[in-house]
Specification:
single chain, alpha/beta, 13 strands, 33% helix, 24% strand, PfkB_dom, PfkB family carbohydrate kinase
Length: 308
């Protein structure tokens, strides 16, 4: 039986939306080389958008706070997210400029990807007037570090209202250190390198020193390294035949937010800050890793949803 809207955890996702043009190729072309792609996917993308889509697919109610705009390409992004059940609060509706576009080449033999994107460099977003209501309506809030002014405002509100906050650390960005003061859970990629950090242990220590209670570093198919107030450890990543690694980290975060929000339903807003245990964190990481691994077994960022 499908959960009712009231039973579904509500997630607020703050960050980047892009239009992803994904091509499956035999190899990344050399200079002046042309080749024919095996397959193509055109879809809404970006860390926060993909995480919201995963959260929705897993049974949550997802709202994405982002910038898309009214350019025809942007309307396609919004339509795709709507199809996936993600409610969009677009803070760039007055813009007629194209949305950020990511061009992605996925190598068929390995699933590795090469990405070129403009990211969020074209938009500076002020918090909306209804931000307090959006935050109050969520069970958990997730941030990808893009649109930092907006992220700071939303994270500060969420922290003040006792809503669990999750940070997706794909790479270090200006202002990240200030955002961490309002983050309960941070899961970062191996490419996330805070100042002075060169190893996952360094990153976990940095996050702890900046107020993050629960943290982890994902390393592709290698075990996830995690730390909490009572110690740490590793979580194995299920082995799959990799077809495409694009968006795996985004799916990991959407699934993690869904697991954490589900744990916290009975004690709204206190699961992470006051009641999350090492066992619960490991369980959430393990469940999220299983979903992300499943997503890697098919090409593009949508096929895994159709598979189950």
């Amino acid at each position: 039986m499908e959960p009712t809207t009231k039973e579904r955890p509500a997630g607020l996702f703050v960050g980047l939306s892009t239009l992803d043009v994904i091509q499956l190729v035999d190899h990344v072309p050399a200079s002046d080389e042309k080749l024919t792609a095996r397959e193509q996917v055109v879809a809404a993308g970006g860390p926060a958008a993909n995480a919201a889509a995963a959260f929705s697919h897993l049974g949550g109610t997802a709202r994405l706070l982002t910038a898309i705009g009214s350019h025809p390409l942007g309307l396609g992004v919004t339509a795709d997210l709507d199809r996936l059940g993600v409610a969009v609060s677009d803070l760039a509706t007055g813009s007629i400029e194209p949305p950020a576009v990511s061009s992605i080449l996925v190598t068929a033999s390995s699933g590795e990807r090469a990405v070129a994107s403009t990211n969020a460099t074209g938009h500076r977003l002020a918090p909306p007037d209804d931000l307090d209501m959006l935050v109050a309506a969520c069970d958990i809030a997730e941030f990808d570090g893009h649109h930092m002014e907006l992220a700071m405002a939303a994270a500060r509100l969420a922290h003040g209202l006792g809503r669990p906050t999750v940070f997706d650390g794909g790479s270090w960005k200006d202002g990240t250190q200030n955002l961490l003061a309002f983050i309960d859970v941070a899961v970062c990629s191996a490419d996330f390198r805070p100042p002075g950090a060169s190893t996952p242990a360094d990153t976990l220590q940095f996050l702890r020193e900046h107020g993050v209670v629960w943290s982890a570093v994902s390393r592709g198919e290698r075990p996830i390294v995690w730390a909490g107030p009572d110690g740490g450890g590793t979580v194995d990543v299920p082995a799959v035949r990799v077809a495409d690694t694009l968006g795996a980290g985004d799916v990991l975060h959407g699934a993690l937010a869904h697991h954490l929000a589900g744990q916290g339903k009975a004690v709204r807003g206190q699961a992470v800050r006051g009641h999350l245990t090492s066992e619960g964190f490991v369980q959430a990481l393990r469940g999220a890793a299983a979903v992300a691994s499943r997503a890697c077994a098919s090409f593009g960022t949508r096929a895994w949803m159709q598979a189950g």
